[in-house]
């Protein structure tokens, strides 16, 4: 009987315990933890580098008494698209709202706004995009002359609109001061590194690069640091030409140099020498580049070529239309994509007084395709040449007149006449003709004009696309691409 009593008492205690637990569970009222919803933020913003930028989010809470901002921490983090790990993250702020002067580099970013509830430990996030653009992000760089001195101006493209910035180095607070008279500006990508876009500013005294995003300067951006040869401090280039594939050629004085990032070849000893010949020759101030390069030997009056990674130039093959050893003076030379790629060269014979137009391919093989007298108007006074890549017309200027020469008809046509205003530079960007001129009616430092034209077939009238005025006298210009 005693064992049975104990057993029943044990069962009763278990039953009471379960009953008590069930009743205890019924005494609690469980609710969801506080949640934060983030609104008031656009999906995407475009902001100017250096400008004031503000984002004021709207926060809502599931708990009625959870709006005390002291309960939360905030952070704004920008992650740059396509950047290296070390350059990817930029911390923007730790306040509830974002109020900053935009100091991060230009580019596209994913921005993470994070709100953390310190009471519950929960974190809430909103992701949006920012495109940071710079007043110097893209556009025409113009090496200009103002009161006999070099000045870099820019026609900057911002939000698909162009603005003219005089003395852009001073505008951005660059420490680089240009010395001497303007010679050239060249811009292209030298290597895949972050600062590998080369913007070369050449005067008659020096050649320097600037940091491509900010135009800031440091001593190692001088051209001598791109070279393995020892050169004087006043070493200056007249041309730094992009050959594609991180290859480039430089002309300085009467010498030529070669650079190839992939093979770690830097500008070194001059390449204007033929193997087994005793001395270097003087080259003309033009280079035709198509991965490799064609130069003109002024000493021996001949075309020469540089191929691959050779440390010297080589002679040209025998010609079918003319002798590459021309015995003439080179007036102008360039490489054009016209007719699947041709070198165009204008030569002048002192003996006959004639100007000859030569064309030849320059790729896997060299073939001469054209050699005729260039019977163009006022050739003796012609300057500032450019070749249309799709139509093959040769444009040149004589004072304030712009001519187009049709080599098939062997005839010139006057395309523009600016009267007392003179042309100072000419080139093609794609199929667009870009002409620089000097407005005689405007004051020094504001008299430069840059115009873009569409070239029409059958030497039709040029169609003006854009006109930018208020620059200095433009000596050279180059488009800073993205």
Shape, principal axes of CA atoms = elongated
Uncertain residue segments: 1-25
Quickly give the structural class.
Answer: mainly beta
Estimated helix fraction: under 10%
Q: DSSP strand (E) fraction?
A: over 45%
Across the major sheet, the strand order is 2-9-8-5-6
First-to-last CA distance: 98 Å
Number of helices: 3
Radius of gyration: 34 Å
- What do the pLDDT scores average to? 92
Q: What profile does the largest beta sheet have?
A: 5 strands, mixed
Explain the layout of strands and helices.
Elements: H1 2-25, E1 36-39, E2 44-48, E3 52-55, E4 58-61, E5 72-80, H2 85-88, E6 89-93, E7 98-101, E8 107-117, E9 123-133, E10 139-146, E11 149-158, E12 161-165, H3 168-171, E13 182-189, E14 197-203, E15 207-209, E16 239-244, E17 247-252, E18 255-260, E19 288-290, E20 292-297, E21 302-306, E22 314-315, E23 329-336, E24 342-348, E25 355-360, E26 368-373, E27 383-387, E28 394-398, E29 401-406, E30 411-417, E31 422-429, E32 432-438, E33 448-454, E34 463-471, E35 473-480
Parallel strand pairs: 2-9
Antiparallel strand pairs: 1-4, 3-7, 5-6, 5-8, 8-9, 10-11, 10-35, 11-12, 13-14, 14-15, 16-17, 17-18, 19-20, 20-21, 21-22, 23-24, 24-25, 25-26, 27-28, 28-29, 29-30, 31-32, 32-33, 33-34
